[in-house]
Amino acid sequence: MHSELETIVVTPEEMAGIDRAAIASGIDGYGLMEKAGQAVAAAALRLFPGCRRFVVLAGPGNNGGDGYVAARVLSDSGCPVDLYGLGEPAPGGDADCARQRYAGPTLTLGDYTPSSGDVVIDALFGAGLSRDLDASVCALIDRVNSLAVPVVAVDLPSGVDGRTGQVRGAAFQAQHTVTFMCRKPGHLLMPGRALCGDFEIFDIGIPGRIVSAASHHLRVNGPAIWRMSLPQADPSAHKYGHGHLAVFSGGPMSTGAARLSAAAGLRAGAGLVTLLSPAPATEVNAAQLTAVMLRQVDDIADLEALLGDPRLSAFVLGPAFGDFEKARAYVTALRGRPLVLDADGITAFRDRPEALFEIYAGGDGDLVLTPHDGEFARLFPDIAADPGLSKVERARKAAAHSHAAVVLKGADTVIAAPDGRALINANAPPWLATAGSGDVLAGIIGAHLAQGMPAFEAAAAGVWRHGEAGRRAGAGATAEDLITVLNGFDQI
């Protein structure tokens, strides 16, 4: 498979257009279905060579057609197969052709009783599902899941919305999913990602140019996206040549978050990092800092004096900062300077989010917002309240509205740029959900901004490196552990 197809993500609507374009170019539609069904059968035989019975559940559409092909191939291989159908394929279509080529009987879906030793081939609905399933289908799915019957899903586990990753009534918990040509959002967005099990993409022969032409700037986050924007090592460079990051500290009882950000920024490649501390917290911070420098900043006058130093190249504001009024004043003073706004820095604008957006509306400076769902709802209440939007769509709308790169955090973090580019991150292990993890992420992104990376690329690289640090640190890792295992640019 062409390497670019490994990163492309297309919506179900776009995938349908890709299929139509492939057929219009002269590619046989039934031939594509044959390749898809054969790939599913091959995966089932590879994973379950001693299966007592393969049970194929086939819907009326092309996903069901893939199931009919898989059933025929499995039967021709000498495997015991029972096929249960839901409705009839449209006469004369590719799915109908696949049904006619399958020699066995088509049993009624409602008559299937799951039993130990079955392996289910789920070909009921593909990624194009956009409605809630009927109650009878939900009941069948629940029976299969409750018995832990292994499921091989065709394209996407039935019940998962391919655009949003949400469950439409009920969804199979697949052990393995086989999809074709490239991923859909439902493969990457939660809870769909968790329901796919192990995952493979099979190339059924649609030219990469057709797939690329239909995709709209949605990719899986990875180094191929932003590697060219990484800072280049210069043997003659001094510490200021690697950027100077400044991180704002909270008060004396809440200094740890900012120190985590500062330490992460230094480890992530910033040449210098300075912690900007209010006077009551300076002694606490001084006792804990070594390589990170310390400077007292108590008010807007102190900050404006500091901003006279052109060598300060990026800022992180928000981790446990506490003082919302001061946070708003500081952001205004930082207009035009690269800034990561996190946690309390975001919440500070919950009553007047437009005031924040206006500061960066001119396009001067790079702003990165790093909200979790709760903070996102405070800053973008109208977008968050729209149930019809996927997480990707929410992040894209927020980025366009705020003139910022938006990192909508979670197990399926989405990074979006104001120009519509978006990435879904897929390398973060579940144990990254630990205290201080977000502070570390803010520091990594801040280091990238300090070294001159554009906001979107800085955010994307930061999210990916954060995930890799979690993988390296292993289960049970703390935020401090993440910092110690951050990989260098030369290892990306």
From TrEMBL:
Keyword Translocase in annotation: no
| UniProt keyword annotation of Isomerase present | yes
Give the molecular function GO annotations.
ADP-dependent NAD(P)H-hydrate dehydratase activity; ATP binding; metal ion binding; NAD(P)HX epimerase activity
Superkingdom of origin: Bacteria
Task: Show the PANTHER family listed in the entry.
Answer: ATP-DEPENDENT (S)-NAD(P)H-HYDRATE DEHYDRATASE (PTHR12592:SF0), ATP-DEPENDENT (S)-NAD(P)H-HYDRATE DEHYDRATASE FAMILY MEMBER (PTHR12592)
What does the record's cofactor remark say about binding?
Answer: Binds 1 potassium ion per subunit.
- Outline the extent of the YjeF C-terminal domain: 222-492
Residues that hold K(+) according to the record: 63, 122, 158
The family database entries (InterPro entries) matched by this protein are listed as:
Carbohydrate_kinase_pred_CS (IPR017953), CARKD (IPR000631), Nnr (IPR030677), Ribokinase-like (IPR029056), YjeF_N_dom (IPR004443), YjeF_N_dom_sf (IPR036652)
What is the protein's name according to its record? Bifunctional NAD(P)H-hydrate repair enzyme
Q: Which reaction does it catalyse?
A: (6S)-NADHX + ADP = AMP + phosphate + NADH + H(+); (6R)-NADPHX = (6S)-NADPHX; (6S)-NADPHX + ADP = AMP + phosphate + NADPH + H(+); (6R)-NADHX = (6S)-NADHX
According to the entry, every stretch annotated as the YjeF N-terminal domain falls at: 15-212
Question: Which protein family is named in the record?
Answer: Belongs to the NnrD/CARKD family. In the C-terminal section; belongs to the NnrD/CARKD family.
